[in-house]
Design a protein that fits this description.
With 211 residues, this protein is mainly alpha-helical. It folds into two domains: 65 residues, Winged helix-like DNA-binding domain superfamily/Winged helix DNA-binding domain (Arc Repressor Mutant, subunit A), CATH 1.10.10; 134 residues, GntR ligand-binding domain-like (Four Helix Bundle (Hemerythrin (Met), subunit A)), CATH 1.20.120. The chain is 71% helix and 5% strand. It has a three-stranded antiparallel beta sheet with strand order 1-3-2. The N and C termini lie far apart (47 Å). The N terminus is likely disordered.
Length: 211
Amino acid sequence: MTDAADSPSAAELIVRDILRGLYQQRYVAGQRLAEPDLIARYGVSRSTVREAIKRLAAQGVVEIRRHQGARILNVTAAEARNILLIAEMIVGLAARQSAHEIDKGDNRKLLQEALDAMATASASSEKFDVVLARNRFHRTLARIAGSPVLENTLANLHVHLVRNKLVMTPEQRLASYQSIAEAIFAGDAETAETRARSHVRVMIDLLDQDG
């Protein structure tokens, strides 16, 4: 094993791959995360795997039971809906606050870069790239708003939102984010919040239909 494999960032790489695997269904709810299997798969030390599992547990992705190890938690339809309801409010608030702060510092540049990243991801054949670009867009809104609390809250929500399949086409999603950004660039806080909340509401409505 190399020092690079056991570096502090190795645990985060495992976390990211497991989250990606949840979206791609390489990992599923109820699946046991056996330490020997993860050590072999990622080529890291036991301590690195344990750190990754601890991070996933702290984020509410896995549960650790004594003598049973770690398992990926199941998210019920009701819990998924609650997560999306929280996301609707938080993303809407981030968009509103961003509109108020858009002309400060490099905020316009940051938002344009996040929007460009979404455009690039939308053209990619890898759907998970869109998930990552979505997360970046949301984090950028919180950063522009100047709120570490919003940024941390969105980061925690992203962990759970990864379980929700993308319900818009890449073109629809990009158009939706462009619409949100347009309102933010114009400094229109009310419209920015309305459009951001409507964007999340699409997923809530689909979940209600499936239920």
